[in-house]
């Protein structure tokens, strides 16, 4: 990805999260409109990873609803010392590493109960 030289300014434009159609993982993105098209640009990824959508991709109202559910406000990362402050019922996005550590995936879960 081309960097304008000011990473803080560039990252501020990435203000929403999107569940990728490629792997169903959540990523920080920015949205660009052009004509009847929408481009989803992933923060820190080359343009080759952009996902593009046009109005013709949404033939049924259900398709629009499903697409809208792929967006959410940005997640806030909890630091180790804040974990005890997370309340039951809170929705969190957690990373899970594979047994060999070669792959890390993110999942969204609801905190059902906390260990004492």
Structure description:
The chain has 116 residues and is mainly beta. 12% of the residues lie in helices and 34% in strands. It folds into two domains: 7-72, SH3 type barrels (Roll), CATH 2.30.30; 80-110, no CATH class. It has a five-stranded antiparallel beta sheet, with no helix packed on it. A two-stranded antiparallel sheet has the order 6-7. The longest helix is centred in the middle third of the chain and has 8 residues, at 61-68. The radius of gyration is 17 Å and the shape is globular.
- Write the CATH fold name of the largest domain: SH3 type barrels
Principal-axes shape call: globular
Query: Termini separation (Å)?
Result: 45 Å
Q: In percent, how helical is the residue content?
A: 10-25%
Widest sheet: strand ordering: 4-3-2-1-5
- What is the CA-atom radius of gyration, in angstroms? 17 Å
Tally of individual helices? 2
Tally the beta strands. Answer: 7
The profile of the biggest β sheet is: 5 strands, antiparallel
Question: What is the correct CATH architecture of the largest domain?
Answer: Roll
Q: What's the number of structural domains?
A: 2
- List the secondary-structure elements in sequence, H or E: HEEEEHEEE
Strand percentage lies at 25-35%
**Classification by helices and strands:** mainly beta
Low-confidence stretches: 1-7
Protein name: SAWADEE domain-containing protein
GO molecular function, one term: chromatin binding
Domain SAWADEE: 14-99
InterPro entries: SAWADEE_dom (IPR032001)
């Amino acid at each position: 990805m081309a960097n304008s030289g000011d990473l803080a300014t560039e990252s501020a434009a990435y203000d929403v999260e999107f569940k990728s159609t490629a792997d169903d993982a959540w990523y920080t993105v920015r949205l660009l409109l052009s004509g009847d098209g929408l481009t989803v640009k992933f923060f820190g990824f080359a343009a080759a990873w952009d996902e593009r959508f046009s109005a013709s991709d949404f033939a049924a109202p259900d398709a629009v609803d499903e697409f809208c559910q792929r967006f959410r406000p940005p997640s806030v990362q909890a630091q180790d010392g804040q974990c005890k402050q997370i309340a039951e019922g809170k929705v969190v996005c957690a990373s899970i590493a594979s047994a060999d550590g070669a792959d890390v995936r993110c999942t969204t879960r609801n905190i059902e109960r906390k260990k004492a």
